[in-house]
Design a protein that fits this description.
The protein is of the alpha/beta class. It has a domain of about 160 residues: 2,3-Dihydroxybiphenyl 1,2-Dioxygenase, domain 1 (Roll). It is about 25% helix and about 25% strand. The strands form two sheets. The chain has a seven-stranded mixed beta sheet with strand order 2-3-4-1-5-7-6. Strands 9-8-10-12-11 form a five-stranded mixed beta sheet, with no helix packed on it.
Length: about 240
């Protein structure tokens, strides 16, 4: 299947691939499983950056929860890449945004949202093959915005593994496709260019508040239901 283009009305070159949330500890999977969401697997360790993660897949993106298991490795990684997973996981103390928005390129389209505008300057690529815009990378109070190669993007994964959707994408709760992203930030405007471009093109809405929060809307809020992750300390609201 082809990932739905969230900004199709503007014929944009970029579409959302996945979103991450940094948390202090491994998420309480039973909270989500009892609600009817199925995690893809047991936690996956990323040894070099000192983190582990668990993933919820949907039809047009996936949601990744990241936490730090090795603080020394995470600090070394932060020095080398400016990606501070430790600071982001302790967002309540650091006021650093715990969120990241990954995008991949939509082939065969044209748009005013140009890739060279999105990443005016690139630091050296990490072992994760992520390309970052330098101004957004250092402005840690807003969600991290980054691009990933098609080779590791969700559409490629869905295409190469035919049973993947049946196993991991169909949730008893019924959530299918993300149709809205709203992020609360604690810093003042203006936004950096990458995030501002995503706002301009309708990929994400940004509001200012006293605490970071990510609100994801599925299927145009068809069931008028809400699952609030703040009940277990995760700044996440799912509307479906």
């Amino acid at each position: 299947m082809k990932t739905q283009l969230l900004i199709s009305t503007n014929n944009s070159l970029l579409e959302v691939d996945h979103i991450f949330i940094c948390v202090e500890d491994a998420p309480k999977v039973e909270f989500f499983e009892q609600a009817g969401l199925i995690f893809a697997s047991s936690p996956v360790q990323q040894v070099e950056r000192g983190t582990a993660s668990q993933i919820l897949f949907f039809e047009n993106f996936y949601l990744e929860f990241i936490w730090v298991e090795d603080e020394v490795a995470a600090e070394i990684y932060a020095v080398r890449t400016n990606i501070d997973f430790l600071g982001r996981s302790h967002w309540q103390q650091t006021q650093i945004s715990p969120f990241g928005i990954a995008l991949h390129q939509q082939s065969g389209t044209t748009s005013s949202l140009q890739e060279d505008e999105f990443r005016r300057s690139q630091p050296e690529k990490t072992e994760l093959l992520l390309s970052f815009s330098s101004d957004n990378l250092v402005t840690q109070t807003e969600p991290l915005c980054f691009l990933i190669p098609d080779a590791i993007a969700l559409p490629t994964l869905l295409k190469n593994f035919s049973n993947f959707q049946k196993q991991f994408v169909s949730h008893p709760l019924g959530l299918r496709k993300i149709t809205g992203i709203e992020a609360t930030v604690t810093h003042t405007y203006p936004l950096t260019q990458p995030l501002a471009l995503l706002v301009e093109n309708g990929v994400v809405q940004v509001e200012q508040g006293i605490s970071p929060c990510l609100q994801l809307t599925f299927d145009n809020y068809m069931h008028r239901s809400i699952l609030d992750g703040r009940a277990i300390g995760i700044p996440l609201i799912l509307k479906f």
